[in-house]
Amino acid sequence: MDVITLGESMVLFTPDSPGPLRFATNFNKKLGGAESNVAIALSRLGHQTGWISRLGSDEFGLYVRNFIRGEGVDTSRVIFDEQNQTAVFFKGLNPGQDPNVFYYRKHSAASQLSPENIDESYVSKAKYIHLTGITPALSPTCRETIYHVLDLAKKHKQTVVFDPNIRLKLWSKEEASDVLSDIAKQCHIVLPGIDEGQLLTGNDSPEEVANDLLQGDTHTVVVKLGEKGSFLATKDHQQYVPAVNVSHVVDTAGAGDGFAAGFMSGLLRGFDYLQSVELGNRIGAHALSVSGDVEGYPYWNKMNTNNQEVLR
Amino acid sequence: MDVITLGESMVLFTPDSPGPLRFATNFNKKLGGAESNVAIALSRLGHQTGWISRLGSDEFGLYVRNFIRGEGVDTSRVIFDEQNQTAVFFKGLNPGQDPNVFYYRKHSAASQLSPENIDESYVSKAKYIHLTGITPALSPTCRETIYHVLDLAKKHKQTVVFDPNIRLKLWSKEEASDVLSDIAKQCHIVLPGIDEGQLLTGNDSPEEVANDLLQGDTHTVVVKLGEKGSFLATKDHQQYVPAVNVSHVVDTAGAGDGFAAGFMSGLLRGFDYLQSVELGNRIGAHALSVSGDVEGYPYWNKMNTNNQEVLR
Amino acid sequence: MDVITLGESMVLFTPDSPGPLRFATNFNKKLGGAESNVAIALSRLGHQTGWISRLGSDEFGLYVRNFIRGEGVDTSRVIFDEQNQTAVFFKGLNPGQDPNVFYYRKHSAASQLSPENIDESYVSKAKYIHLTGITPALSPTCRETIYHVLDLAKKHKQTVVFDPNIRLKLWSKEEASDVLSDIAKQCHIVLPGIDEGQLLTGNDSPEEVANDLLQGDTHTVVVKLGEKGSFLATKDHQQYVPAVNVSHVVDTAGAGDGFAAGFMSGLLRGFDYLQSVELGNRIGAHALSVSGDVEGYPYWNKMNTNNQEVLR
Amino acid sequence: MDVITLGESMVLFTPDSPGPLRFATNFNKKLGGAESNVAIALSRLGHQTGWISRLGSDEFGLYVRNFIRGEGVDTSRVIFDEQNQTAVFFKGLNPGQDPNVFYYRKHSAASQLSPENIDESYVSKAKYIHLTGITPALSPTCRETIYHVLDLAKKHKQTVVFDPNIRLKLWSKEEASDVLSDIAKQCHIVLPGIDEGQLLTGNDSPEEVANDLLQGDTHTVVVKLGEKGSFLATKDHQQYVPAVNVSHVVDTAGAGDGFAAGFMSGLLRGFDYLQSVELGNRIGAHALSVSGDVEGYPYWNKMNTNNQEVLR
Amino acid sequence: MDVITLGESMVLFTPDSPGPLRFATNFNKKLGGAESNVAIALSRLGHQTGWISRLGSDEFGLYVRNFIRGEGVDTSRVIFDEQNQTAVFFKGLNPGQDPNVFYYRKHSAASQLSPENIDESYVSKAKYIHLTGITPALSPTCRETIYHVLDLAKKHKQTVVFDPNIRLKLWSKEEASDVLSDIAKQCHIVLPGIDEGQLLTGNDSPEEVANDLLQGDTHTVVVKLGEKGSFLATKDHQQYVPAVNVSHVVDTAGAGDGFAAGFMSGLLRGFDYLQSVELGNRIGAHALSVSGDVEGYPYWNKMNTNNQEVLR
Amino acid sequence: MDVITLGESMVLFTPDSPGPLRFATNFNKKLGGAESNVAIALSRLGHQTGWISRLGSDEFGLYVRNFIRGEGVDTSRVIFDEQNQTAVFFKGLNPGQDPNVFYYRKHSAASQLSPENIDESYVSKAKYIHLTGITPALSPTCRETIYHVLDLAKKHKQTVVFDPNIRLKLWSKEEASDVLSDIAKQCHIVLPGIDEGQLLTGNDSPEEVANDLLQGDTHTVVVKLGEKGSFLATKDHQQYVPAVNVSHVVDTAGAGDGFAAGFMSGLLRGFDYLQSVELGNRIGAHALSVSGDVEGYPYWNKMNTNNQEVLR
Ligand SMILES: Nc1ncnc2c1ncn2[C@@H]1O[C@H](COP(=O)(O)OP(=O)(O)O)[C@@H](O)[C@H]1O
Ligand SMILES: Nc1ncnc2c1ncn2[C@@H]1O[C@H](COP(=O)(O)OP(=O)(O)O)[C@@H](O)[C@H]1O
Ligand SMILES: Nc1ncnc2c1ncn2[C@@H]1O[C@H](COP(=O)(O)OP(=O)(O)O)[C@@H](O)[C@H]1O
Ligand SMILES: Nc1ncnc2c1ncn2[C@@H]1O[C@H](COP(=O)(O)OP(=O)(O)O)[C@@H](O)[C@H]1O
Ligand SMILES: Nc1ncnc2c1ncn2[C@@H]1O[C@H](COP(=O)(O)OP(=O)(O)O)[C@@H](O)[C@H]1O
Ligand SMILES: Nc1ncnc2c1ncn2[C@@H]1O[C@H](COP(=O)(O)OP(=O)(O)O)[C@@H](O)[C@H]1O
Q1: Ligand 3 mean position to C147 CA, how many Å?
Q2: What is the CATH number of the domain that holds E123?
Q3: Residues 6 or more apart in contact with residue D175 via CB below 8 angstroms
Q4: For residue E10, is it within any domain?
Q5: How many domains in chain A?
Q6: Assigned domain for B94 exists
Q7: 3-state secondary structure of E30
Q8: What region holds the Carbohydrate kinase PfkB domain (chains A, B, C, D, E, F) (predicted)?
Q9: Which range of residues forms the domain containing residue F295?
Q10: Does position E298 have pLDDT exceeding 50, yes or no?
């Protein structure tokens, strides 16, 4: 197993056309979930990945599990919950503005994830553990699960990659900042977006954000900068890595998760950090020109790795 | 005001085509809610109705309020809740079987309805109060609200019409039976479906069900019998009232609510009980040939009341 | 040229799903028009047909012309009107009931059809002239046009086939009955539905209806009887001709026009009247199992004429 | 009542995808009508508004009435016409060009609006009367109705706001110019688009247009300038008011009506003219990023009035 | 591994609404393929299954592989072909008639399947081998592959289950009959539809068909009889097994494959032949009430095995 | 007859929304085919055109024939093939990238086109013959057919217009270059895109490409340069002709075919070469703002020929 990740995936409903959701008449069903995005992107890039979660024992739970399994991700540790439901959410599109998101995830099956749901022998086989800042916001047991996995990773000397992914619909800035800072410093690699870095550190520039986060066990930070690319910082090397040029941005959702997948893919292939960040930038860019989170991630055999352009 | 009702309405998502929901790709947005069904049907029949509820201060809350208001129902007492969301639900269609329903209504705005949300001066103006057995299943405060409204109705000498509407996805048979029996006997008119009557009384036949329910303040019971019509029972008169013949049944949802509306419409027009039940049967029949709960209810001016046939 | 017909064709909008039109959100665009139905059905059966009309010089006019031309019907005499529009109509489907139709055809381009629009040398080349009772209801000039064509047919000794096609949304029973009776007796072959025959003659049975219509120039009457088939009457021969058995009736629109086409196709092939009526019944039956007027008419080479079953 | 407006609303059909309408296969149903746009926008901004009109007693009439009523606009004076139909129109979208519009509104129910349909006691209660230049183009009785309402407003000393809204599909430039100039000078506030101002006055610049229109009873003119904002002119003050910056313009329909609503909302709130124009500009801008006329108008409680940016 | 099957799967396009395909405007994408149907149905029933095939290295190949993999079927032996494409087909629905099917599968990737593509060590692990009569019709190399697999099964003493599945669009009756008879007698269990049995044996009754097919290695025959259920025949026992009663038949496609899966599931669970046929009947019935081949197959944990009714 | 062209037309399926085809759920049916594009565009411009081809005797063949016939193109020489199918193809849209195209045209009916299918008396009546480089790539008999038509054109002294239209999915660069160069020099007018010109001649600049192609019978070359317009070259005159400015490019498919039609339309109207190229540029520009190949071509009576702007 190359990478194991855990978190909540949901069914996403998006209307056919932009505008306020109350006027939408037709909705399409899609998959949403940062961690499964990463697992799927990694699987397409040729890596063995596992996704751990809880889903409702309902139609939407089967949809989520089968979609992710269909992408080649190992879902053997997904637990079907007879008591709680698979979460759903709705996303209204407003051209030129942030999407309008409505979650129905309180008391969802995934929010009941707890340390007992984690199979140590399974987790211990992964080269990398990928965690996000969404999971600890879901419930106290989810938060405990994250800490439990951090302990296991320490015990098994696994590298932990952390994407803060702050969702202010789920908790307050203060609580998010406290908890995520604490988690971040127990992770070896931290991949904040610049806004998240600012929120976590109180600093403004990528340089300062990165320096602040390079503490505890954290030896590498990459600050994601959207169309400006990313900023790579280890204790002894720091550098801006420009983005791939994308002419038609359709939907930015999934770019950050694509970055994480590309970056880990680089590391798994033995690329150095710079090359891995470049690969992260490329996979992030692939997410942009398609509506939906995972639809844009490329298969490794369709990519021309000598070519800086996004090929599809 | 002719009738005031209160309860939860939700956004309903139904797929384009029948089959398990996990394979559906396109969903349509509709309105769902037994009490708003009754209010809408009554409004089309020419009566002044008010619907009391709480909705999330979100896109779906506006959709629900505007739809119901658009139908001519007074929504001036609807409260928009900044903390809790408008509920949604999904309904999978399986030809020849019961639909497969998934609710996302726990902790919804409507479940926070409480006695303080009831404006006594508003409620006291109605000739009839309409309640259903769904509301007390939603939360303790909802249950208190029902009892509070019963008290107000007593104080203002209003007639209360009760539709047990047992939803076993919301509570156990035992709890439902206890609570609803207690409520029923404080209501003047009770309109159970035959299954509900059986569950509430432990009896089998419409006659026995009706006799059992004719207790406390209850002076009239109509047992709804689907394609067999209904059974009318007062303390001194009992009679089967045959259904209108409907050749193409598309969707039975909303038939019971249509019955309640037709029956109350009859009473409001000064019809006797038998005529009112006949009108109930006719409005119930109108709901059957259209997908959606409220789409089929007729406008009074499109109905030929001398004609036993369903006209549209 | 085998058959020339003239009349109005319109764009038809039908909702995706049944129910009152005010709740429909998606509409499909189709072609509607009794005379073009006949022309199209005849063309598929291998005959040369021409359709004369006026259309608005607008997008919908091009749609109608191109659709009909695409079916192989000669549209060289269609006039594009810069002043008046192509008509549209909407059809709401109510399972088990008649569709709910809303026309927007007043002052349409076709209603401006007048005798000057008729090219005598073109019309005179046809073996059969097909007229319907819709055209004289559209406007005084349309009515004049019908009488003008009757004169031309007389002059050129052509057989005129008349389908009364009474549309009570367009005129009163009295006016329809007066005008259409007068036209009918100048036509050689009259093809009423049984209801129309009753309205025109005041009689009940197919026999009486036919006898009454066998006057003036009319030597042959076929009364269409829906699932009971049709009743053929000439001055010296009368006979019921049973319908083809159709298990799934989806949409009855277009059956009568299919009958007319099949019947004329038989005559054009040299079939006797009975065989021609049988072919009419078969083509009528083909219209039933598909939504839309013309979609179901068969191509001659897909029909097995020895086989009484509807083949497709 | 804050504002009363009167005019025609129609059902609008737009295709799913851009291109000539003859190739479109799926159409969506929406609401169209300048005056109801204004009433709806005002209602969302928190004002009591009434909309007077005639609708066909048909499915589309109910759709239009219920939609507008659902938005909180008083429709108690809408008359359902048993004789004439609700109008419809079709709009083809051609990227980068003006939409291609086809009306079916001749002899519509609304075109039969006449002075007797106006309830003086109702109209007299409004602080503002809103009129557009579309209504007088619909029919002679509609034109009389406008003059009748002007008389009533004079009698009851109400402020009349006039949007010339010239529709050259309905009448000639000459007739439009004559009639609308005459009406404009009887209105207190005139809100022409720059093109309309040019047509009415024969002048080019906003300054000249405004000066010319400041005659008769007209004391305030605002010339709408699209992305350049608007030009405010009273007898003693004139000023350009820049537009809100909108990055993604999806559909400009409804911007002018949003401006009128925002401007009147300002006046109703006691804003000065400049502030009211600024609010007009903001509401106009909200209409741009959504397809459909009314979908984009904001609710007052979702707007941050200290913020010049369009918030949604 | 419980069952291994091999064959071609394709992308199926079906129109939104019934009628001739030339008038359809919207098509939905689905999965089609008898062998993957069986594999998916078995997987839902709780068995480990593998599906061997070739797919084009194209979007549709990924769709097919991911769909099947998502259902829990092992696809590790699927070969992506850079030269040849994934097949597609179109299915027009005509109510009350057989669907109209158009294949685009000549020279498809799957038709290039050849003995070298078969991994003996993989195949040898299965308890059952499932083959259909479609594969040998695709190409000479496909036919060789079937014989090669029969040889491997013999060598490894595996039970072979054969569904003749005669497709007359792919080859002539004569060729089909010759080849399939030869294959059938090398298989232990043969599951013909009654029509297929008639074609293979020249006999009429289920009894005669079964007796004729009980030759060579064939020790068990089940003749599928549609709504009449099935006829089970071993050398010493023969019996009709009635079908489950299904009130709404939506789409019969996939019933035969569901039967095969249910029957094998019974054998794998240690059921006797009769019980296995009963389970086959039940799973076949599940396929009928949903459009699409695989959408209706049930999960084992949703079935109440004590209940003869189809539960879903 | 003004122009006769011959080649393959196919049914094109495009998804509702951009992104990889494997995630698309709804597909729309359209027409595709370079030669029928040219014939349709010419017909709309007022010219008599004929399109020769073979189609499968199936639903899609009827769709293609009827669509093209509906556009006014003579299809009397289209042959329906009982053995081979009408081709289909799928086109995935990726914003900002080339579409992803999948053909199912091997062994199609059109690929069986052969010299015997060409009716000399029909072909000899055209003023211009239009050929493309797609046809010779389809099969040896198609290639022979092209040479046969070239011979007929020579015999009847007709002008041949050739669009190289190189499709590298159909053959190799080398084969394409050899065959097309040979054909080009037998044609009087050659209309390559700049890429095609480069591939055929090995040169870079429009000037060099044109000079190289001005050999054999070729007396005029126009190199199409996309948004840069085109380069006109005869033996004694060479000139760049700027494109029409198009603000919103939706779909570039069909631009080259529109150019060819506009150019030939000019020649047929007696325009000089420069004017004809200008008309070509204008018609090419019309194709750009609409999705689909032929949807954007204008009708002659909707064009203001004095106006350089694209009018629609
Ligand atoms: N507009 C863009 N153009 C090119 N690349 C982009 C663009 N937006 C995002 N990316 C790429 O995707 C990566 C992640 O996107 P970003 O939006 O920064 O992540 P997050 O959503 O986690 O904040 C960026 O580091 C960059 O490489
Ligand atoms: N199949 C039917 N045919 C005719 N009328 C029906 C049919 N089903 C319901 N109705 C009418 O609607 C009323 C309410 O329907 P029912 O299904 O009994 O209510 P509930 O859903 O509350 O149990 C019935 O009393 C009857 O008059
Ligand atoms: N339900 C049916 N079953 C079989 N054939 C039918 C059916 N309905 C109509 N037809 C055939 O179509 C013909 C015309 O249909 P009909 O409904 O009688 O015509 P019209 O619409 O002109 O009254 C009939 O004569 C009959 O042959
Ligand atoms: N492109 C735009 N950007 C920003 N604001 C705009 C734009 N177009 C319109 N508006 C705003 O909407 C108002 C009305 O739009 P306009 O198009 O001028 O009205 P009308 O349609 O009545 O001519 C303008 O005054 C301006 O404030
Ligand atoms: N109409 C039906 N009602 C109930 N069961 C059916 C029906 N049609 C098929 N089945 C079940 O599915 C099984 C397979 O269907 P059948 O149509 O006989 O297979 P095939 O398609 O292979 O010929 C049958 O043996 C029966 O058990
Ligand atoms: N972006 C564009 N803007 C304006 N005109 C264009 C554009 N693209 C193509 N055209 C016009 O269409 C013609 C043909 O388009 P082009 O793409 O060059 O053809 P082809 O597809 O055959 O290579 C061009 O010569 C030009 O006149």
Answers
A1: 28
A2: 3.40.1190.20
A3: none
A4: yes
A5: 1
A6: yes
A7: strand
A8: 4-295
A9: 3-302
A10: yes
